Amino acid sequence: MIRKDLQSSNLYDNGLALTGLACFTTHDLARDLVNDVVNLLSSTRPYVRKKAVLVLYKIFLKYPESLRPTFQRLKDKLEDPDPGVQSAAVNVICELARKNPRNYLSLAPVFFKLMNTSSNNWMLIKIIKLFGSLVPLEAKLGKKLLEPLTNLINSTSAMSLLYECINTVIAVLISISSESPADFTASIQLCVQKLGVLIEDSDQNLKYLGLLAMGKILQTHPKAVQAHKDIVLRCLDDKDESIRLRALDLLYGMVSRKNIMEIVKKLMQHVDAAEGSFYRDELLSRIIDICSYNNYHYITNFEWYISVLVEMTKVEGSKHGIKIAEQIQDVTVRVKSVRHFSVSQMSLLVENAHLLLSGNSAQRNNISEVLLAAAWICGEYSE
Amino acid sequence: MIKAILVFNNHGKPRLLKFYTHYTEEEQQHIVRETFQLLSKRDDNVCNFLEGGTLIGGSDYKLIYRHYATLYFVFCVDSSESELGILDLIQVFVETLDRRFENVCELDLIFHVEKVHHILNELVMGGMVLETNMNEILLRMNEQNDIERREGGMSAASAVTAVKNMNIPQHLKDLKLPDLPSIRNFKNPF
């Protein structure tokens, strides 16, 4: 029945059959019908060709043996005169490449040409995203891409395209970060500048995306984002939880010895006010990560840090009992001067153990980890 | 790739559900409930991207949504899709519905589910974006509707003529009833 529809001359019969196939195709159906679908790739109507291309992806998923023989036909569609069909072909190849990027590296020149000639934003976005995933595999590709991407960044008015270009440039920069960075400061500066504009925009979506991308730059070029420290700190107070989460990511680059206490205090206030346990856990683990970063590089007052850790123990519903316990132990063991203070705090905890253990079983597990550490410390270092 | 498209109202009642990967009924209901819980807590002027769901979420998936009056339109996508592009796509979808139904409202979605599904099939197929131009989609929908009307017209007309041609009283007279079995042949059970 499906074959009859696929071979019908009415384009809507074809369309319906293809749509249906996309929903319910199975291994056997795919095997039997792949030839009919491939015939439709050469239909005179772009509407049918477009749909046939997209269905091919589902067929490849269910019947992988069909990929090799039909791949050449799929590649031909990249040069189809109709932009919709081209776009569909790009879509399918991008999806395939996500699973297995290396196989599609050879198509890079074709995509390069498409990128320079097309004006269809959707297709450009897909191609640029594809390049973003290919770049880690081939360093030369990255360098070749920098110039056209920079041109696009400077010329486009579409925010979505701008954002994707910046993302891919960041991917390029990360992949070639091992080489001399001085050559690429211009690109980095451009990205950071554009992202700064995004973050300052009143549209929350742009703010979110700007923070997301800046977080990626941070990993390889932390100094570059220093210029926007103030804005990011302000984002920590934003009423939108997603934005706060992203601002947390950037904290690593923003923290310094002078402002760490203030930042942690602010974060603890957020912990108290936080509604969702997911967010609260993120906050707690971030606080610990920042403080312990680089061997406690930023902490000047360890007594303050121990009191922060004790406060965290009292937070309800936290999943980080082990981490907190490790931290307390680590600090107490390594910093001799703080042991006295630590012991006094730990003994308070142990005395009030019955209060702390009154929560439900999940909480009890966490708190008991800390109590274990507390008891050990008291035993080791009390005088 | 788009994993799922959900449309539900302010009370969490689903109006349109389309999943592009297989989930059981129970999982689907769970996903809708969880998504509704996550979204109902959000203010109206926060950003339209969400992460952090457990079932349909996961590290690679985002929920991109738009809230229009009484309805939430949610697209669950992975990292291969552009976030701002999907936001535009939701806008195109809603505008197409608006043109098709002339000032679309929730009742239109309830009473004309199949039309909404048709429009969605022109927009997204197999989890990938098929067409982003509203006029093109409307053109296809109109052509398909014309075909439907023509075919529907023909079969309705032939059904009516067939009924007219049936001569019911004559048929009743010609009805041959089966013979009743003769009582004499029954053995007396008592």
TrEMBL record, chain A:
Subcellular location: Endomembrane system
Entry keyword annotation includes Repeat: yes
GO CC terms: AP-3 adaptor complex; axon cytoplasm; endosome membrane; presynaptic endosome; terminal bouton
Keywords: Membrane, Protein transport, Repeat, Transport
Keyword Hydrolase in record: no
Membrane spanning residue stretches: none
SUPFAM superfamilies (UniProt xref): ARM repeat
Biological process per Gene Ontology, one example term: neurotransmitter receptor transport, postsynaptic endosome to lysosome
Pfam family, one: Adaptin_N
InterPro entries: AP3_complex_dsu, ARM-like, ARM-type_fold, Clathrin/coatomer_adapt-like_N
Superkingdom classification of source: Eukaryota
Residue ranges occupied by any Clathrin/coatomer adaptor adaptin-like N-terminal domain in the UniProt entry: 1-383
Annotated family: Belongs to the adaptor complexes large subunit family.
Name of the protein described by the UniProt record: Clathrin/coatomer adaptor adaptin-like N-terminal domain-containing protein
Organism: Panagrolaimus davidi
Organism classification: Eukaryota, Metazoa, Ecdysozoa, Nematoda, Chromadorea
TrEMBL record, chain B:
PROSITE patterns listed in its UniProt record: CLAT_ADAPTOR_S (PS00989)
Protein's GO biological process: Golgi to vacuole transport; intracellular protein transport
Keyword Cell membrane: no
Xref: InterPro entries: AP_complex_ssu (IPR016635), AP_mu_sigma_su (IPR022775), APS3 (IPR027155), Clathrin_sm-chain_CS (IPR000804), Longin-like_dom_sf (IPR011012)
Domain AP complex mu/sigma subunit: 1-145
Entry-linked Pfam families: Clat_adaptor_s
Presence of the UniProt keyword Protein transport in the record: yes
GO cellular component: AP-3 adaptor complex; cytoplasmic vesicle membrane; Golgi apparatus
Keyword annotations: Cytoplasmic vesicle, Golgi apparatus, Membrane, Protein transport, Transport
Subcellular location: Cytoplasmic vesicle membrane; Golgi apparatus
CDD domains membership: AP3_sigma
Protein topology in the membrane: Peripheral membrane protein
Function: Part of the AP-3 complex, an adaptor-related complex which is not clathrin-associated. The complex is associated with the Golgi region as well as more peripheral structures. It facilitates the budding of vesicles from the Golgi membrane and may be directly involved in trafficking to lysosomes. In concert with the BLOC-1 complex, AP-3 is required to target cargos into vesicles assembled at cell bodies for delivery into neurites and nerve terminals.
Family, similarity comment: Belongs to the adaptor complexes small subunit family.
Protein name per UniProt: AP complex mu/sigma subunit domain-containing protein
